[in-house]
Specification:
By secondary structure, this protein is α/β, with parallel strands linked by helices. The protein contains 7 helices and 5 strands, in the order αββαβαβααβαα. It has a 5-stranded mixed sheet, sandwiched between helices. The longest helix has 26 residues. It starts with a helix and ends in a 9-residue tail after the last helix. Bound molecules: zinc ion.
Length: 195
């Protein structure tokens, strides 16, 4: 599987599988973050999920996906799977992905995007306050996993695929901009501790 085919599939999963769930979740007062798990072998979808913090503040998109994955009786070995997060995982989710046995994850938006574009500064604030880490201060490749931004896959794609991927990237960003406006306008009414 080459990198542009992987980038295309990850963007398709965000657009077609995660975003519809997140639209419903945000309408219920949840944050905009989602996640999915795919098979490495054929990039087929195992599960897609979205943030469900109104039920439990630990149900970030990633942890909620892992919870639902472990509710499946017949599930693949995590080493055979790709973990996808719409937004760079927070410290809890970085650890959750690690404890769940994954050796990789990919994400669309960065921690800085969460802070600057989505007014969710908690990821970077927790890394700084609890771990004394500046933005980008954790090991993106380590003994447990390798992580990568989807944008890095797009950046090295050849033309004309690169232009197509960038158009899809822009379409997804636009969809999240609208969802973020919806979440931010209603968040004072929810009971999420770090909203
Ligand atoms: Zn998280």
């Amino acid at each position: 599987m080459n990198r542009q085919a992987l980038a295309r599939r990850l963007l398709d999963v965000i657009e077609n599988d995660i975003l519809p769930l997140t639209k419903k979740g945000v309408a219920d007062g949840n944050k905009i973050f989602g996640a999915a798990i795919l098979r490495k072998s054929d990039l087929s979808l195992v599960i897609a999920e979205t943030n469900n913090e109104t039920e439990n503040p630990l149900w970030h998109g990633e942890v909620h996906a892992l919870k639902r994955f472990h509710e499946q009786a017949d599930r693949p070995d995590p080493k055979e799977l790709i973990f996808l997060s719409t937004h760079e995982p927070c410290s809890m989710c970085l650890s959750a992905i690690t404890w769940a046995g994954f050796d990789n994850f990919y994400y669309f938006f960065t921690h800085e995007d969460s802070r600057d574009a989505f007014a969710i500064p908690h990821d970077l604030k927790i890394l700084k306050e609890v771990f004394r880490l500046e933005p980008g201060g954790y090991a993106k490749t380590n003994a447990f996993w390798r992580s990568a931004a989807i944008g890095d896959l797009i950046a090295v794609a050849p033309e004309p695929e690169k232009t197509e991927l960038k158009a899809q990237d822009a379409r997804i960003r636009h969809a999240y901009d609208r969802l973020s406006e919806s979440y931010q306008s209603g968040k004072n009414d929810n009971s999420i501790p770090l909203n």
